[in-house]
Amino acid sequence: MDYLLTEEQIMIRDLARQIAVEKVVPMRAELDEQNKFPTEIMKAMAQADLFGIYIPEEYGGLGKKSLDFYIAIEEISKACLGVSTTYAANALGSYPILLHGSDAQKKKYLPDIAAGRKYVAFGLTEANAGSDASGIQTTAKLEGNEYVINGTKQWITNGGEAEIYTIIAITDKSKGPRGASAFIVEKGTPGFTFGKKENKMGIRASSTTELIFNNCRIPKENLIAKEGLGFIVAMKTLDCSRAGVGAQGVGVAQGAIDECIKFAKGRVQFGQPVTSFQAVQHMLADMQTQTEAARALVYAVARMMDNGAKDFSRASAMAKYFATDVAMKVTTDAVQVMGGSGYMKEYPVEKMMRDAKILQIYEGTNQVQRTVVALDMIREATRAK
Amino acid sequence: MNIIVLVKQVPDASEVKINRETNTLIRDGVPSIINPYDRYAIEEALRLREKHGGKVTAVTMGPPQAVEALKEAVSLGVDDVVLLSDRAFAGADTWATSYALSQGIRKVGEYDLVIAGKQAIDGDTAQVGPETADMLGIPFVAYIRKIEQVEGRKMIAERLMDEGYDVVETSLPALITVVKEINEPRVPSLKGKMKAKNLKVTAWTAKDIGADEEKIGLKGSPTQVVRIFPPAPRGQREILSGSIADQVATVAKKLKEQSLI
Fold first, then answer.
1. What is the dihedral of CA A288, A292, A293, A297, to 10 degrees?
2. Given an 8 Å threshold on Cβ–Cβ distance, is A53 in contact with B190?
3. pLDDT tens for residues B84-101?
4. Is A292 in the active site?
5. By the CB < 8 Å criterion, does A23 face chain B?
6. pTM for this prediction
7. Contact call for residues A276 and A264 (beta carbons, < 8 A)
8. Domains along chain B with CATH numbers
9. Chain B residues within an 8 Å CB radius of A50
């Protein structure tokens, strides 16, 4: 399919693909096996300017938008979702600053982020606040010129590896969701430590830890936007990042298809390659068609965002859940087509299948995404009456 | 420090087929790439610049489309490029090529180091490096696998040998060729690629570099290809160890056994 990409988008795709093939593919099994952070790969991606794609030029980025960034995510995801999660989580952590930060905050943080000198993490989730973000218990209390933060964030991607953390904490309990605020916390601030590194089913190259705040004092200037806007900051951030998770889904699905067809062509049973059997052909056709449909949806949503659409919650939720459900199905089918070999660690598809599962869970479960879509449909129908 | 990197555009060897009748490469339709060894040369130059400051200039000689190799160099982070391109250069062997390159390098001006890949994967002669150094009248060191130190007007580096390596000290400016063990070349950057896309390169002609017409192109090429054949495989080798006396005795014995002495 031709998506009429610009010359620069093709340049981004080719460069990300080169990194995926030359740097990620040779390392991915080891990173997965050893639960190891992809330090060298991140350095290569930084040197290639991939961290600055979506950051404005005035802050050292390339000044591109969502589609350009998603194309890079897709290519890296073809090779390893653990690496692409590490990469994409930087954007998730940056959006609060990019969308709602002050000029001073942008000037202070974005150049380092764009250059890949400092990694970023986004801290929203807690033990009792996942899909229900209103359950947040971490608090921030203004004392003089400082906020004092207490509480624990859970399952934070890039935890421990990032230098910059954008987190959501409650500044006024009595106001419910309107009592939440967003803050920037730097690694090394006294009272800010990390829990153990989680041992995950997939995306094992990515680092996931708790963020522990124990009377952690940060300067007042680290408040993003205003007190009480924390949920809006979080929701706008997730609106922007969600379709990017869809791009991860498209990438891992395509990666699985590419591996699977390469194998199936050479796999002979009953005297002929298994690709000559209609049962396998139909599976392959469905896998590619579904992946193409997911790609078309993700790109369409990205273009809508890039052309200045104001409200894209529904669209980005659709892209996220459709593309990641496809990713789960396609990676599972890739294992099926490859049979016993697909189940073995000698081939990458078992890892892709394990990795794909998280896409249906993080940044809003696919059930929550369907709720977002349905509620928006119902709202629209009500307004139309 | 100012560094000049010599690059060559070559056919992608992984895509090249050989005409069995003429024993020559079938180049039609084969994509062109930067000679893979030159990518190590570029990487080392960039690393030296990152450490010591200065400027990296990539120089190539070739047809107008060789500009693509220079664009790739720019996408990797090279500051400046020079394309030597003129019909008069056509048909050059390594000697005439080295002459043209040395004239080009003189025109570039002040430099501390010239780096080239150990050889090009199409001709595989490994001659252009040393010949160019000779024509420039500067020291030449081949097969560098590590640059240990650059200080003032001198450099210490490790030269890869069949067994082990030599530590070599040379004065600067010098010309070195590098092996793939020296580093891991980077991938291009997006900013570099965008810069490369808009790059306009004005070729330097034979006249521009003040080249003697008798020394360039086919006219300036003493080499004649008489026959092409695969080299005979190397004989078996053995590394001796122990005291010098023991080693000498062993060598003498073996030579006697083979009736060589």
1. 150
2. yes
3. 999 999 988 999 999 999
4. no
5. yes
6. 0.87
7. no
8. 2-215 (3.40.50.620)
9. 190
